[in-house]
Amino acid sequence: MKVLLVYPYFLNPRPKDYDVRPLPIGLYYLAAVLKQENFQVEILNWYNLNDLSLAKKTFETLRPDIIAFSIFNANRWGGIDLAKVAKEVLPDTPIIFGGVGATYLWEHLLTHFPEIDYVVVGEGEKTFLDLTKALAAKASSKEITRIKGLGLRLDGQVYFTGEAGFIDDIDSLPNPAKFFSFQHVISSRGCPWNCVFCGSPRFWKRKVRFHSAEYFLEQLERLYRRGINFFYVSDDTFTLDKERVIKICEGILKRGLNITWQAISRVDCLDEEIIYWMRRAGCLQISFGVESGSEKIRNKILNKKISKESIKKAFSLCRAYGILPRAYFIYGCPGESKKTIQASIDLMKEIKPLSMLCYILDIYPGTALYDDFKKRAGVNDDIWLKRIEDIMYYETDPNLSAERVKNFGRKLHQAFDKNFPRFVETLNLIDREELYPHHADFLTRLAMTLRYGELAERDIPEKDYLAEKLFLKALRYHPDHHAFLGLGIIYQQRRDFEKSIEILHKGLSFYPKSEQLNVCQAVNYMQLGDFKKALEHLLPFENSPDVLARMAACYQALGDIPRMQKYLARLESLKKA
After folding, report:
1. Which of 17, 167, 312, 560 fits a disulfide with 555 by CB distance 3.0 to 4.6 angstroms?
2. Domain 2-160 CATH class label
3. Dihedrals φ, ψ of 418, to 5°?
4. Domain 479-577 is of which CATH architecture?
5. Whole-angstrom distance, CA of residue 423 vs CA of residue 417
6. CATH class of 176-430
7. Helix and strand numbers, DSSP H then E, in the chain
8. Cα diameter, the chain
9. Could you tell me if 147 and 124 are in contact, meaning their C-beta atoms sit under 8 angstroms apart?
10. What's the pLDDT tens digit per position in 121-175?
């Protein structure tokens, strides 16, 4: 039995695809469960597919016995389009939808789209495995209706078999890292809170289940041994269980996992001890849903239930321990005004986030916001027959307009950019010697982000001078390799070659075999016309493609044409290889 799992493309193009590119972790769990039962499984990441003829050829070539799609609301139409293509090619192959987007619209999907045969509603591993086994055994429709958690058609009518319930012990699931490699990991399922814009409360019923620290550590170690050293921890609230978080962090250190990672938390679910261990274990960034500076919007309208004091404390702890605190703000909410946006700006200035993402309030199925919208607008799920990803709240509120809401967003972004230098200059890292290398790494990464990362694209004043200060501050804590390199490049770009040579010379005293530092130093000497000195730094790396062209240029300048030709020929050979 061959099962094909597909992650469909999204309806709207994205200028940056980092939030939709990774496969949902749930697909890896599904595939692991099937593999453990000896089913053949293949996963296709078609998040950016733009050619349905390619999908048609793939279905014709693979000829799977079952095709299942992982559905969010935003890729719902991608799944529908692909399901139609699949049915044209393989009319007898069952098509299954699952995931959050399918769960909330199971009846709608089965009513309007005959190419969809089954919808897995809720947590999918047990239901999907049972369905796969039933289809493999050519079970009757009546037998299939005994499988809980399924939407299907029975005698021409859509039918739900009843809730499947949750898997009590999620450690009983096979570890997907035994079979697959991935960076987006998860150590728990669910969230106990009830924010109106989020589908989690209804999907997970505000119940949280945890993998044991041992299970999660085994997953990280398996992936690390395959060469993966950076992870996104996707738990809704990673720090919910303090004892477990510290066990995980201690385990990372004891196992010698030289990894870095990011996590998501709530501002009222962490303390200084948690932050300390997370930083020691390689955590670089924690994202917090701040949502709004208006307490009324944050806690009464959005039902976030967090205090200003908790927000300030969480951001202060992260800044002190060298973990980058990212703030999520939502704007265009009910009752949004210049005054509430100013409250968000004022809060931003107080907490001094070092990264910020702002989102317009969206309405999605499965949320309390969506239930309210249906009542207010007198609509039902057929609203999703429109070829849309989502509905912006402001589109349903006569007191808001698109231009007004966009202006709110501009004000938030402009305030962040304008104040960012102060957010950086007021950093006061805690004085604990064992954290000095981590502090240097934190400051260096922040500087690099200003020059090459997401902050480089923002309108932040004097980014290069701010980066220079951060690199210099980093070196006061620890001789960080990238801080030396960053400063060397900054001075080089200012054509202050002597200063660049000086700082790179210091760096090379700590990292004499660093190709990056040596090449950067060689460029300085080439700019000053000292090609023999430049070659001293290049020759140890003469087999590197990045070095060969510079070596050839040096020999050309020195009039040694045979050697110039030798290295150009080697470079050309490497390109062909």
Report:
1. 560
2. alpha beta
3. -65, -40
4. Alpha Horseshoe (1.25)
5. 10
6. alpha beta
7. 24, 17
8. 87
9. no
10. 999 999 999 999 999 999 999 999 999 999 999 998 999 999 999 999 999 999 9
